[in-house]
Write a structure and sequence with these properties.
The complex is a heterodimer. Chain A is mostly helical. Chain A has helices at about 1-5, 10-25, 35-60, 80-85, 85-120, 125-135, 140-155, 160-165, 175-200, 205-215, 220-230, 230-245, 250-255, 265-270, 275-300, and strands spanning about 65, 70. Chain A is built from 15 helices and two strands. Chain B folds into two domains: about 10-235, 3-Layer(aba) Sandwich (Rossmann fold), CATH 3.40.50.300; about 245-370, RNA polymerase II/Efflux pump adaptor protein, barrel-sandwich hybrid domain (OB fold (Dihydrolipoamide Acetyltransferase, E2P), Beta Barrel), CATH 2.40.50. In chain B, helix 2 (about 100-110) crosses helix 3 (about 120-130) and helix 2 runs parallel beside helix 4. Chain B is elongated, with a radius of gyration of 25 Å. The chains are: A mainly alpha, B alpha+beta. The interface between A and B is medium-sized, with 19 and 26 residues. Chain B: GO terms for molecular function: ATP binding; ATP hydrolysis activity; transmembrane transporter activity.
């Protein structure tokens, strides 16, 4: 009797009971439904998003009656006409688009050597330091960080005080375009490095050694070997940075001080300042369209496979 | 360029007292050798013997902590890898996956700023040399393992380097393909006459492809000799053990006379030849007699072994059938029950001894090499 009990422990019996119960509740014939069941939460979320988009689409076709502050009953394209012709919106859109492109290029230029050093260094200590330095700002929200820059770059900020010591008159470092771009680059850098690091890890170091043995100095080795092989990482990082910068709100709002609005700030103003929900919805949809267009162009140029989403080639 | 070792061809590579220390660990301890131009040298050793480190020092990926490497009469310690004229085939090949086979082969020519109009013709010639004519447009991942090897060889040779280095490129291949590629390396090396240094832990490969073999262990060169000499006259017990299947019978040295030595194990006297003349055994000391498994004969009774110097009785402990030969482990009571490995290459009479069978074994004294313990 004792022997039998040790041969078949209690935990196994409990598992048997649980398995029998599971088989009763979810017979094996249902098993094929499991993948769809696991997909359900994601589908639900995407569905809600689509519902919201339809709602916004509906709003964007109604104009605001300024006498009653109610939206019109009939559909019209007046909001779209206004968004495309009003000089202010054209300026804001151009500013956001050029800004996000500049931020992307600068971020990638800064992130690449950082990621490369982090991946290739033989010193575990240096790698740890670089990783911690990368993740620390992640724990500080975007708004708090922007206020931090206000303190550092303000008229009485640390930078201007330091300049004052060497006799330089206070500089206006805030509330201009470069300040917004600076804040955005600083915010995007960790994202770019984290997207680049796996792509660089996937490049065997031996390829660079081989390039050297074949007569390539480090510049040639970088241009002909490292850069082409890092392309999936560069494209992925670039996409993340460009979409996040294009739709950013806090940096233009805080470091731009109202004078350097991006599209998201304009949408906010329409919804919460002028209460023109129709125009706000129109701008929101046009931002979605602009972002999708950018992603679409990148995918056509480089292929979706560059994001390493396809099956690995043998 | 001074010590030309008897041969007519000039010295292509001279390694002089080269040492490499990593964090206090001596990966290479004062290695020296000369390699005449056009020769195929193999550095053979177990993993961790320092053979790959030595190769990387010659390639210029690392600088030696001591000593000097001279290639074609020029000291190269201060020359970075990309300015040395050295072609290298890497263990994992290190082909560029984003380029075609032809672009891979063209890479060193482009890096050396060759006339762009001559590059395609030259690339095609070298692809032909490695029997890959017409495959230039293929992507690397579209080629088989053997074809990738060939691309790597063409890429390492296309710029006509002074020296070709092979860093165990055949280690990952299956046996058939590996043996085919060994002969291929040999053919290409003879055809071009390029001085070659190959690194491997595969003794068969070393014997098949090389003009000279350097056996390394623990960061030191144990022996440098031609393949037949390395096999037949190992300079020390490590080389005797590392190459081939060797039995070691240890015992007290009874007497030494010239190049002859006699060992005593239990009640048996085993005469042999002094293995290392620079470190000969002394009477009264301890030594080991090394004898190859294929130099021991095995028979059902002692009468069939009458021509041999030493004949002992034993019993089969294990019999392993390996196809072209049978490997026996024979327990010898006269040697205090020590087991000797014996190859039987002679299955013509269809005799295979079963474990437990009583047998006789015998060998000639000239096949026993005596090394100091």
């Amino acid at each position: 009797m004792r022997a039998a009990r040790t041969a078949y422990p209690l935990t196994w019996r409990i598992m048997d009971v649980l398995e029998a119960f599971a088989a009763f509740v979810w017979p094996t014939s249902f098993r094929r439904a499991i993948p769809y069941l696991l997909l359900a939460p994601a589908l639900l979320l995407v569905g809600l998003l689509v519902l919201g988009l339809i709602q916004i689409g509906d709003l964007s076709l109604r104009t605001l009656d300024t006498s009653t502050f109610l939206l019109s009953e009939n559909y019209t394209l007046a909001n779209y006409r206004k968004a495309l012709t009003e000089p202010l919106f054209v300026v804001v859109a151009t500013r956001s688009l050029t800004g996000s492109l500049i931020v992307t290029v600068v971020t990638l230029i800064f992130a690449f050597p950082y990621a490369y050093l982090m991946v290739r260094t033989r010193s575990a200590g240096l790698r740890k330091f670089l990783l911690i330095a990368l993740f620390l700002p992640f724990f500080i929200g975007q708004v708090v960080r922007a206020y931090g820059w206000l303190i550092i770059l303000g008229n009485q900020g640390m930078v201007n005080e330091a300049l004052g010591l060497i006799g330089v008159a206070p500089l206006r470092l805030l509330y201009n375009y470069p300040a917004v771009l600076f804040g955005l680059v600083q915010y995007m850098l960790p994202f770019a490095v984290l997207m680049l690091a796996p792509a660089l890890t996937a490049i065997p170091e031996e390829l660079e050694t081989a390039a050297a043995s074949l007569g390539a100095n480090w510049v040639h080795s970088f241009i002909h070997v490292v850069l082409p092989l890092a392309r999936p990482g560069l494209v992925g990082a670039g996409l993340v940075v460009v979409t996040l910068s294009l739709t950013d709100f806090a940096m233009p709002a805080i470091l731009g001080g109202g004078s350097q609005d991006f599209i998201a700030n304009a949408i906010y103003d329409q919804f919460f300042r002028t209460s023109d929900q129709g125009l706000g919805a129109t701008l929101a949809l046009m931002l979605v369209a602009l972002g999708s267009l950018l992603v679409g162009i990148v995918f056509t140029l480089f292929g979706a496979g560059t994001l390493a989403m396809g099956r690995a080639r043998q | 360029m001074q010590d030309v070792t008897g041969s007519a061809s000039p010295i292509a590579v001279s390694v002089r007292d080269v040492g490499m220390v990593y964090d206090g660990f001596h990966a290479v301890k004062s290695a020296s050798f000369d390699l005449p131009a056009g020769k195929f040298l193999t550095i053979l050793g177990p993993s961790g013997s320092g053979k790959t480190t030595l190769l990387r020092l010659i390639a210029g990926f690392q600088a030696p902590t001591s000593g000097e490497i001279v290639i074609n009469g020029k000291a190269v310690s201060a020359v970075p890898a990309h300015q040395r004229s050295i072609g290298m085939v890497f263990q994992k090949l290190a082909l560029f996956p984003h380029m075609t086979a032809a672009e891979n082969v063209a890479f060193p020519l482009k890096m050396r700023r060759q006339d762009a109009r001559t590059i395609p013709e030259r690339v095609e010639r070298y692809l032909d040399l490695v029997k890959l004519g017409g495959y230039g447009g293929r992507r690397i991942h579209e080629l088989s393992g053997g074809q990738q090897q060939r691309v790597a060889i063409a890429r390492a040779l296309v710029f006509e380097p002074d020296l070709l280095l092979l860093d165990e490129p055949l280690a990952a291949l299956d046996r058939k393909l590996r043996e085919e590629m060994q002969l291929e390396f040999r053919r290409i090396q003879r055809e071009l006459g390029v001085t070659t240094i190959n690194v491997t832990h595969d003794q068969r490969e070393a014997l098949v492809v090389s003009d000279e073999i350097i056996v390394m262990d623990a960061g030191e060169i144990q022996q440098k000799a031609q393949p037949t000499r390395t096999y037949r006259n190992p300079q020390n017990a490590f080389v005797a053990n590392f190459i081939g299947v060797t039995n070691f019978i240890s015992g007290a040295v009874r007497s030494v006379a010239g190049s002859n030595a006699v060992l005593a194990h239990s009640a048996v006297e085993i005469p042999g030849i002094v293995g290392d003349e620079r470190n000969p055994p002394r009477a009264g000391g301890q030594a080991s007699g090394a004898i190859r498994a294929e130099q021991i004969r095995i028979a059902a009774n002692a009468r069939s072994l009458s021509g041999l110097d030493i004949v002992l009785e034993g019993s089969i402990r294990d019999a392993i059938f390996e196809g072209e030969r049978i490997v026996y482990e024979v327990c010898v009571p006269a040697l205090a029950g020590e087991a000797l490995r014996v190859f039987d290459h002679d299955p013509v009479d269809h005799v295979q001894f079963e474990p437990g069978a009583a047998v006789s074994i015998g060998w000639n004294s000239r096949d026993v090499l005596v090394f100091n313990n």
